[in-house]
Amino acid sequence: MGFNIKAGGPNWWEYALLALVVPASFLVYSSNCYPLLNSDDALNILMTFYYKLPNDWYCWGQDRGGTLLPLLSQIFYRGLGCRPVTAVSLSNYLILLLGYLGFSSLIKNRGLRMVLALVWFFPPFRFVDLLRFPLGVQYSLLGLGIALLRKIDFRYGHRIRNHVYSLLVLVIAVAALWVSDFAWVSFSVLTAMLIVSHRLRQQGNGLSPMVVLYVVLGIVGAFLFIRYAKQYAQVQNDNYTHFNSWEGILGSFRMLLGRWGEVFAFHAADALFSMYAWGCGLAVLVLFHSFWKSADRANWDRWQWAYFFAADLLAVFGGIMLSKWVALNNLGRWYFIPNYISLWMLVLVLADNLSLRRVWKRITVIYLLVLALLGGYSSIRYMQRVYPGTLRSQVDLRSELLQLGRIGLVADFWNAYISASPDPERIKATPHDGGVKTMELVDAVFEQPRLYVIRDMWMDHFPDTLLQFGRVMVKEGYPFRMGGCFLNQYVCVPRYEQIGMASFFFNKAVRKDDSSAVVEAHIPEGCMMWGPYFNLCKGKYVVQFRIHVDAFDRNRDIARCDVVTDYGNRQFAQQHVSPENLNERGDVRVILHFTLNEYVQGMEFRVFTAGGVAFSVGEVVLQEL
Fold first, then answer.
1. Which of 517, 619, 519 is nearest to 559 (CA)?
2. Residues 531, 610 contacting (CB under 8 angstroms)
3. Which of the residues 234, 270, 392, 521 could staple to 61 if both were Cys, CB 3.0 to 4.6 A apart?
């Protein structure tokens, strides 16, 4: 089959160096220690704390980014009692370590395996999201799947261990696709390589039934699981799976060439990375030239993994350029993590398998080792001196907020969830109204004994009054700085609001001005007034409608008022207005009490006419009890 090339066994110094590299990387890049931890990272921490299936197969209702890390983190969090941030750090690095071991099994030379360890655990800053982003987890699973695939001997297809390994590979492939939809590209390339290799070993006699069986099982299993998991996604983003236009593709190429032009011209902020880029370019040219000159470059058994990583590099790069989602996100550096991994694996496989003199092999290993060290050091130096200018952990910085006790926080998205990551039990946080990932946390924020607002990235100053999630928040005390942010305490006061006619929508037959809306007698039965689509937190409320009738029939209803959401599909209160409700001047104040047990969006206060009676609506008042 050609999957049975054995790598040279590690010796004590390789274990010793690996035992230094992995913990050192953990102390810089894990969630516990990373100086640039952001709210996207913090979502994994909060989801670990709040995790519940089946609703959380994907990150709080979105249709991408499977929650493998929060799921595995339950072992450390609930099983071993670790903090959520520590649990995420451990589960993430466990997957990364398995991914490294999987890819390193393809490399026989011990020195080159150490190069891979540095490339993997200490990437340059532009690819540091390998250690943070789902694409890093995806490729870790790919490496683990490759290691298990190489243990299968397809010449003896019915051995029990072959079936066990095949099933494990399928589970890993489905998990990778769950973590990142883009995994289908790499696993499709891997499947194609498996089929080509099998046919070559069988001299073109067709595929083994075992190969066909597991390929079909993998496709069907992945389809069914992803379809099941995504049915719980509350947000469907069409752009995520759409192809870019030709103009967009050309624009992406121009943007990419411009960025790399700056790097190679030493115009980027990090000169060390420019040196690293030139060094990588030289290594690629020399190794490709040596491979092209080798007499056995067509030897499939020897070069199959070089062909795989070359094909994966091209296929993934093509997918990136074709993706509308990537273009909308300005070709973020994290999307090129697969290219970083595939290119380095291609370089290492070529260096490992080329027939070089011993002295040239050593020079090659030392050169790649120095190059990997330069890339790793450039990342640390960039963070320390350029951005963010410190190596202090964000979790450590935000832990200062724990001095405030049990608090609720309202902030910009990029400040909210990360501020709760030191201890989600004591700190409840939510982005401000409009950028929320989960509404469950909103009520928890306002239930805390003290409420604070972080203005960074959101406002220039703290206003005296804020309206957030239907709550009226009044500033109390003075601003102060803590946890790297400016905060101010706020208190919630009961909401009392006279809602002007400009906030409502009306039937075109209704006459209205700033203070009232008039419904004529000739207008047929139906909804005359609706809106204002308020968002309200849980609590008890009353809404009042002031209605005046000039002339009416004692035997005919006049109007109906109600409180609804979801465009009338969910009703909280209603009342019919009949002549018996009117006073001697023809006035009535309709009072509707309702209770919300959760945060509700799009609340409507509606007025219907029964037809045949003229009336006016002069005032609508909302009051929180």
1. 519
2. no
3. 234
